User: Fold this.
Amino acid sequence: MATNDGITLVTGGSRGIGAATATLLAEHGRRVVIVDIAPEAIGDPVILWSDPFDVADAQSVAVGVAAIETAHGPITGLVNAAGVFGKMNRIERVRMESWNREVDIDLRGTFVVAQAVGVRMAARRHGAVVNVASVAGMTSGPIHAYTAAKAGVIQITQTLAAEWGGVGVRVNAVSPGFTRTAALQAAIASGALDEDRLSRNAAMGRLVEPIEVAQAIAWLLSPLASGITGINLPVDAGFIAGSTWDAYGGLRERQTS
Ligand SMILES: NC(=O)c1ccc[n+]([C@@H]2O[C@H](COP(=O)([O-])OP(=O)(O)OC[C@H]3O[C@@H](n4cnc5c(N)ncnc54)[C@H](O)[C@@H]3O)[C@@H](O)[C@H]2O)c1
Assistant:
């Protein structure tokens, strides 16, 4: 599944979906460098870029990407996994500082890193990018900036795929459903989200595991997906398929059990 040329850069790689993806890619023989705003090693052989890397800061992203390529070689794979969850709020309570932070990191940050890395890939006529969007970008929810930002990530994925399709750079997105990461567990612990409710509404009756998102990302980066660009692949344990069934009394197994 792996190709051994160049390195794969994973943003938000110190935790959650980014860390699971970096670990899996390294197990598949890729050279992987992780960057994070709060950098923390996740173990050999994944390489930690120890300078804090803020995807929302375009200037330091440009400087960081150049320095990473000088130190470790050309980036041929990029996983944009850095992100922050949205604040769940009634519309009256949406604070524009929160709106700006979520859009800056989740949408603008994804574009900034894709631009900095993708232009280099396009010049070398080789590369693959996977952006981590969300089912929240495909549905509605009381997380106003987050849903808009993630819908934007799905959109820029298509635009960048069209931009670079002719120069050998593929760009795809995955849209995780509710995934058992520390960030989600914190939201459950705070009472903002309810695990039973999240599981009940997914066709498979459970949360997604980080490794399952990592596997989809690894596939999209690999030559096995050589003909695929511009798609958004939900990895959601059937959340989109199942969530509307609540209107009809719930998913079958729940009705009969
Ligand atoms: N966990 C879920 O249920 C879920 C569902 C759908 C989408 N997602 C998306 O998956 C991605 C990863 O989320 P996660 O659940 O693994 O969260 P997480 O908090 O476990 O990991 C996110 C990582 O991104 C880093 N980060 C945050 N802001 C950053 C910045 N400005 N610059 C660089 N790094 C930054 C954090 O330090 C952290 O290491 C996010 O884009 C999130 O929106 C998560």
About this structure: The chain has one domain: 7-256. The pocket of nicotinamide-adenine-dinucleotide is lined by residues 11-12, 14-18, 36-38, 53-56, 81-84, 105-106, 109, 132, 134, 176, 178-179, 181-184 (CB under 6 Å). The two ends are 41 Å apart (CA to CA).
